[in-house]
Structure formats: C-alpha cells, structure tokens
Design a protein that fits this description.
Elements: H1 3-25, H2 33-39, H3 44-47, H4 54-80, H5 88-105, H6 107-116, H7 119-127, H8 137-147, H9 155-176, H10 182-200
C-alpha cells in the first residue's frame, strides 16, 4: 500500500473511531457530522470524501463492529472444533453464545447496534467489508451448512428469525434484565433457536 492510500485509510479509520465513540456516548441523533470531523481532527468537508452522510458511517460502523463479533465467534468455534465435534445446530448455538457474551461485556456496543439495526442494515453488515480483515459472515454461515451437509429450506429466513430473536432478547435481558437477566434467559433462547433450526431442516 502506497503512502497516499495509507493516509486515506488512516483518515477513514479515524472518522470511524470518532463516530463510534460519539454514537455510543451521545447517540446517533445527537451527534453531528461537524462533531465527528472535529473529533477526528479534520475539516467537515473531508468527511464527505469518505461517507455520504451520518447514516452511511453509522451503517458501516454496524457492519464493521458486527464483523468483529462474528470473526471472534468464528475463531472460537474453530478452536472448539479441535477438541470436540459439534453438529450444525450446536455450532450455531456456540456462535450465538460467544456473541451474546461479547455483547454482555460491551453494553455500549449492544446499545448502539440494537438501536440502529434493521434486517437490511444487518444483511449489508453480513456481506460488506469495511476493513481489510472483516469477514463475510454469510460465507461462514453457508460454509457451516455445507460442512455439515445440512439441507435447509429458506436458510436466509432461518437466519433472519434467529437474528431478530437474539437482537431483541439480548437488548432487554442484558441492558434491563427484562423479563430476566441474560444468563437466566439463555436456556430459553437456545431452546427456541433449536426449534427454529429444526423447523428449517429438511430430513
């Protein structure tokens, strides 16, 4: 990578980091582009060289932060599979558990993602890499399906239902302990996920 490209990447990363800090402390609606640019040490006009508007940088932050969560969960799964075998359902549960634990330990991130998440944004986050080391989770998802030779009807609908379940229950259980705390909720969440998967597996 040349000096010019490296400089552009550093500026983009600085804007992303500044936006994330402001979004998670003040909220997206109360954060201005001028504040993001100022915190990154740049003129407001520089922001528009990298992002269309505030919602573009928000969506790309969701993409990047989601990718980091999935990357860590995927790596943890790879390590787990070195010591024991898991079937398709157990692999999905393992990934979910890893992500829930990560969100439980970073509630600012959970609050940011959950408040701004829609299926359209999430689907883009699954497939769009912001940083060079981001992963395409849909590729990982389909690889798990292929590795286990699982025949699913409507795998994207199944993933949608699981994501919606996890997103809503984690938000309430982790941030507000409603209706119960997350550790109490986990067995019920995972039982529901197993049933969702069971309904989509073609025997």
């Amino acid at each position: 990578m040349g000096k010019v490209e490296n400089n552009k990447l550093n500026k983009q990363r600085s804007l992303l980091n500044s936006a994330f800090e402001l979004f998670t402390t003040k909220g997206v609606s109360k954060t201005s582009i001028a504040e993001i640019s100022s915190k990154a040490g740049m003129a407001k006009g520089t922001f528009y060289l990298y992002f269309r508007d505030k919602f573009d940088i928000r969506n790309r932050l969701i993409s990047h932060e989601s990718s980091l969560l999935f990357m860590a969960a995927s790596k943890a799964l790879d390590e787990e599979l070195k010591t024991r075998s898991l079937n398709f359902t157990e692999k999905i549960i393992f990934i979910i558990d890893n992500i829930i634990n990560a969100l439980d330990s970073n509630q600012a991130l959970l609050n940011f993602i959950s408040k701004n998440l829609s299926w359209g944004i999430f689907k883009e986050a699954l497939t769009t890499n912001v940083a060079d080391n981001d992963i395409n989770f849909l590729d990982v998802y389909h690889q798990i399906i292929n590795d286990d030779e699982v025949n699913l009807k409507e795998p994207e609908i199944m993933l949608f239902l699981i994501v919606e379940l996890i997103s809503s229950t984690c938000y309430s259980a982790i941030l507000y302990e409603e209706p119960v705390d997350i550790n109490t909720a986990k067995p019920y969440i995972y039982a529901t996920v197993r049933n969702i998967i069971k309904e989509h597996i073609i025997e």
